[in-house]
């Protein structure tokens, strides 16, 4: 698989279920054993690095399962993530992006809605100081109003010079936030489509995604 994400971009990996999108994020993060090939982050070859060393280069992943501590409250979840680089967001900055998290500060993770859990999961990685964020299916199963809020958050993060690699099945959402899209099939990138070229490639996208 060969693809590139440039600084300040929002790029999506799209494709059918089982295409290898999530595995790709995990491989970039160093969470897949016996990696081969080359993974370079700002000139650093990381394919042989353990995940904790990769993280210290300023990269973080928000997994599909969200990875929050269900027994801890919102505030505790936000104070636990390790700082891996300078520039992690303060609690006040987090609350500016996700006001509901301030309101729910003393609520346990198990008491949050799916949308609130997703916001908390994204907020946790923003606390670390990472500038390359990998988000795995951040809108799956969420109400449209929450999807819109996450979209606004991604757009705001791009304005703040974050780089985002996004795995997303909801192509309507992906096309509202991304600069470019890589189509993944059987663990390979088979096409690259610029966001402004979606309309002229809509028939091809329908075939790729089976929608």
From TrEMBL:
<feature type="domain" description="ABC transporter">
    <location>
        <begin position="1"/>
        <end position="211"/>
    </location>
</feature>
<keyword id="KW-0547">Nucleotide-binding</keyword>
<keyword id="KW-0813">Transport</keyword>
<dbReference type="GO" id="GO:0015807">
    <property type="term" value="P:L-amino acid transport"/>
</dbReference>
<dbReference type="GO" id="GO:0015658">
    <property type="term" value="F:branched-chain amino acid transmembrane transporter activity"/>
</dbReference>
<dbReference type="InterPro" id="IPR052156">
    <property type="entry name" value="BCAA_Transport_ATP-bd_LivF"/>
</dbReference>
<dbReference type="GO" id="GO:0005524">
    <property type="term" value="F:ATP binding"/>
</dbReference>
<keyword id="KW-0029">Amino-acid transport</keyword>
<comment type="similarity">
    <text>Belongs to the ABC transporter superfamily.</text>
</comment>
<dbReference type="GO" id="GO:0016887">
    <property type="term" value="F:ATP hydrolysis activity"/>
</dbReference>
<protein>
    <submittedName>
        <fullName>ABC transporter ATP-binding protein</fullName>
    </submittedName>
</protein>
<dbReference type="InterPro" id="IPR003439">
    <property type="entry name" value="ABC_transporter-like_ATP-bd"/>
</dbReference>
<keyword id="KW-0067">ATP-binding</keyword>
<dbReference type="InterPro" id="IPR027417">
    <property type="entry name" value="P-loop_NTPase"/>
</dbReference>
<dbReference type="InterPro" id="IPR003593">
    <property type="entry name" value="AAA+_ATPase"/>
</dbReference>
<dbReference type="Pfam" id="PF00005">
    <property type="entry name" value="ABC_tran"/>
</dbReference>
<dbReference type="InterPro" id="IPR017871">
    <property type="entry name" value="ABC_transporter-like_CS"/>
</dbReference>
